[in-house]
Structure formats: C-alpha cells, structure tokens
C-alpha cells in the first residue's frame, strides 16, 4: 500500500512538472490602449497583442499583458520592470535601450478630413495651410516631427485619437493623421453613421512603411534569447492562415470612405 502511495505521489509530481514545462515561461508585457490593436476591453486584448501572444506561444512562452499609459510602459520597460512592451512604431533611437522584433504588422496611416474641404497633399509641407490634430507621443514620421519643431505645421496637440476625431467633426481642426483601422474602430463605436458620412480619407498613405514591433529591454539578460525565439514564432505564424485571420477583423462603418489607391 505504501509503495502504491509513493508511486502515485511520484507520478503526480512528474505530471505537475511536465505541465509546468509545457506551459512555458510566463512573460509580463507592458502595453497601452489603442483599439482595435491593443485594448483591455477585448477578450483577446486586440489584434496586435493577439499576434504577439500567439508568436510567443509558438516559441514556448506564455504572455500576460499589463495595461498602463503608453509613456509609462516605455519608461518602466526600459528599466527592466517588465519583460517587454508592445507594440511600437519603429524609431532608430529606441534600439539603444531595446531589442526590436521583426515587423508585427504594417499600419496604414492616413489623413482624415471632412467634406466639403478641398484637402490634398503630396509632400508633408503641403499640410501647412491646415489645422492638424496630433498626439504628442505618436511616432508619425521623422519629417512630420521635424516640420512641427520648425513651426511649419499648425498642430493642435490632442490627448488621443477619439478627441482628435471629435475636434474634426466639430470643425475645430481640418485634418487628422490616424491609423486606418483605429479610425474605423473609433468611428463605429463612438459616432452615428450620420456624423461620419462627411468624413473622407486621402488616398495617399502618410508613409507606406509604418512597421510595428515588440520591444524587449537590453537591461534584461534574457531579452536577446527571448527575441530570437519570438521572431521564430512570428515567422511561423506568418506562414499560417491564422496571421491573416487575426489581421482581418475590422470593418469600416457605413458612410466612411476607406483609403484607396
């Protein structure tokens, strides 16, 4: 009887150890609100965070997301309080403190305006006549930020994208640079179709190469190994049909004309 009990205990311990190993190392990733890509309101935590989570799972890791203001995610992750932060547009200066992953997804940044405004642009300096709503900690493009610093652009600094859209509809600004799917998600959840019917998107993208990335702090010794594993998982995910299904979850509301061309 005692031998049987001992055998059962050993078996149970072995199964528990195996289950723990199978679950993989749990990583805590700091993030913020940017629906539909990153949001605590969704069960999957958003499109981009779903991609990051699945890529890590394919590499043998588990992910826990911790939501907070974006600036705080950057500062606390840099110091190693969190295992990483997701997700961010590419800036060369970020590579000083972080390992940046391969591209998680390419965002479509567009200029949204309101009819009957005759808005057109070919170069960033063409925005000079217009009042532009912008968010301070957004990546945008280096040229955009350079023109703002030189005082060329008339920028109305705004807390977030929702506030920018409200300003646009209230005619307080003329143009809003915004990610296409973010615009569609906000317009469908916060505005009536009658309000959005006058909105148009200029067909020229703000930039054709707005890549986004997981960032792991160089201050943590494990980060380089974890990043290599993540990139392998991401490549595997991209080869599967699941990656495409995760991306194609957003539809624009009636009355909203999406980017074309």
UniProtKB/TrEMBL annotation:
Residues 30-248 form the Solute-binding protein family 3/N-terminal domain. Gene3D superfamilies: Periplasmic binding protein-like II (3.40.190.10). Keywords: Signal. This is Polar amino acid transport system substrate-binding protein. It comes from Chitinimonas taiwanensis DSM 18899. The lineage of its organism: Bacteria, Pseudomonadati, Pseudomonadota, Betaproteobacteria, Neisseriales.
